[in-house]
Known about the structure:
- By secondary structure, this protein is of the alpha+beta class.
- The protein is built from 13 helices and 20 strands.
- The radius of gyration is 22 Å and the shape is globular.
- The N and C termini lie far apart (about 55 Å).
Amino acid sequence: MAEIYDVAIIGGGPAGSTAATLLAQAGRRVIVLEREKFPRFHIGESLLPFSMQVFDRLGVREKLDRTFLPKFGGEIMAACGTKGIKFYFKDGFQSQRDRSYQVTRSEFDKLLLDHSRENGAEVREEAEVKQIDFATDRVTLDVDTPEGTTSSIEARYLLDCSGRQTILGNFFDLKKTYDHLQKFSVFAHYENIDRLPGRDATLIRMVRGLDRWFWMIPLTETRMSVGVVMDTAVFRAAKLAPEAALEKFIAEQPLMTERMKKATLVSPVYSAGDYSYRNKRLAGERWLLVGDAAGFIDPVFSSGVFLAVMSAEKAADTLDQVLRDESKRPGLFNKYSRTVNRIMDIYLTFVNAWYRRSKEFLEVFLNPTDTMQIAAAVNAVLAGNEGKSFAIKWRMWLFYFFVHAQKFFALSPRLSLVPKSAKMPAPVGARS
Length: 432
């Protein structure tokens, strides 16, 4: 029997590769089992500044700086075109980071996974886990290989970083969907979209309408990711294939078409739906759920990769401590679960306000005030600040109070969020 691994990791995305690198750096014997062959397409291309400290710890910052565009903040527009605002991470409450990255995920994920290999983690691609058995002191995984054979792997602990597949969440029937967040997204990559000058060319642009919102994420000097999110029921009512739907939705929004007059579609049009969920438990005797395998809230505010990297760092540190002293496992696993759930709750509250109070949220957000640095606190949370300090907490409470009060009192100017009709919406995205 081969020597037992300290940790087996299912999934080689940002969560799996981050955890693998940190555990390997700590001297642990780690194996990553990834069912696909990298590079592969993935959505979730806009990162947050609070991941930068983890990238520093991984030793991967120089590679990222050489490969990807910086991201200095964002731009949020009301679909009616009457109000918009740019925000910069440097202006966040007690900000220590002024940037993150806009990334092509196929390249980003491969870079992180290759970095895990370089740091001593064993990585097997095209290796699909078919069966999991738990014993009192280990986990056994049956894994299909590209050659068509099956091998068994034993490890003391298992990290499920399998993304939306959430293998253990389904295995233990832990997955709970958010019924009020059943959304559908359609997205693709385009070349030759007009951009703002200077550092503003790196900003993510979001356009918020009554029943949908759009994103524009610059990936390279010429390429952008463009997508739209709406209720699943709204998409189904359109009765269109994803490619036709994306073209139609963009053409209906002048704030999108004004930048896409010369745009050329250069990728397939992808779609994803009903992706908001949380697992009821994030830890067991021999396992932890990490990243999207723990839960996914919503693509708005670009929290996906941030939550994956954040939870992976905490999971790796937790397992390293447990492997040194197993008597600490119950307390450390509970602490991990509480911490990750608390941070996901911060984004769930933000997302709920974005969808349930869409007009009021925009009306307050697009009229920031320096009073009590509330706007700076919101900026900090948008940058990935965990909101642990009371200084940020009470400012966020005030922000949500103003959003709630805006429904009854016009504290900020009212917005329709209804786009003005485009005179002649030109066809968008003729494929090259």
